[in-house]
Amino acid sequence: MKKEKTTDIAANLIKDGDTIYLDSGSTCSILFKKILGKKITIYTSNTDIFSVSGEILAEVIILGGKFNPMNSSLSGSLTENLLKNLYFNKSFLGANGIDEKLGVTTPTIEEANKKRLVEEHSDQVYLVCDSSKFHNLSNVKAFDLKDVAIVSDKTDDKISEKVSLIVK
Fold first, then answer.
1. b (16+ CB within 10 A) / e for 107-138
2. How far is it, in rounded angstroms, from Cα 29 to Cα 46?
3. What CATH number belongs to 2-166?
4. Is the pTM of this model over 0.85?
5. Hey, where are the domains in the chain?
6. By Cβ atoms counted within 10 A, which residue in 19, 92, 94, 142 is the most buried?
């Protein structure tokens, strides 16, 4: 239920004509299915999209890279080289941990590097995650919270002091 609410909010932020990056992870996979009927361009490294079929209005571009079956993601130097030449007006990123002091964290260096590049190449960055990620840490810092908004199922006082928190 948390992820459904979170992805409903995020889907409403995406408008026809947008060029977005959609990250890997279970919440972003749910969001992907909700936005396929929009006239948008989606760049992604999320391999869960291979299970989607049917009518799709969105243009979907899959970035290459090394496959990580633990999070259904492509990452590594190939992915990073592609991202260096791409720009997005909105990006929707997942996180394994969000800490008000340490920022966004993820399990691997490759995932952290990918998220950092996307954050640097996006006009607007949204972290799409349920509240269970708040005050958790993973192994590697991806970036600070300063230039992102968090889309989540509920508010958190400490996190909302550092970042815009979108909850409805």
1. ebebbbbbbbbbbebbeebbbbbbbebbeeeb
2. 7
3. 3.40.50.1360
4. yes
5. 2-166
6. 92
